[in-house]
Amino acid sequence: MNVASRASQLLSSQSIGDLLNSDEAFLFDCDGVIWKGDTLINGVPQTFDMLRSKGKKLVFVTNNSTKSRRQYANKFQSLGISVTEDEIFSSSFAAAMFLKVKNFPKDKKVYVIGGEGILEELELVGYTGLGGQEDGKKTAQWKTNCLFEHDKMVGAVVVGLDPYVNYYKLQV
């Protein structure tokens, strides 16, 4: 079977109906699927409305850790789409939840090489995050035979997208 006939078979009315009848939840990536930059992709609101009218659960996933679920909900809102934070599963949220389910001690700190999204999600589950953009302008210490002094209460490091990554952060 050639690619064109396979594609038409996959997108037939019957196959779409079967999909809608067989699945209760639909997961959507965000960047490049729902929007490109700050522009909503055509047909997205209508698709979500149709799925919700059929009682389907929608989950929005992203591996972009620069934003928290709150910030993503605000972006959806700015594009005219109503989404709750509970419908969003971001990598920043996943990192915070991982520490929580692993019972990472609340008295330990988390060093973040990444953006505000990670720091906000860590704070929401009760962790103290350090680093992030705040350390983007700091410089590494390059003294001979010098041990780097670090915060001994840091018990974990979370790394995400960080346009301000530098040698200081790597040294920490």
TrEMBL record:
InterPro entries: HAD-SF_hydro_IIA. It comes from the Eukaryota. GO terms for cellular component: cytoplasm. One of its GO terms (molecular function) is phosphatase activity. PANTHER family: 4-NITROPHENYLPHOSPHATASE-RELATED, PHOSPHOGLYCOLATE PHOSPHATASE 2. This is Phosphoglycolate phosphatase. It comes from Carya illinoinensis.
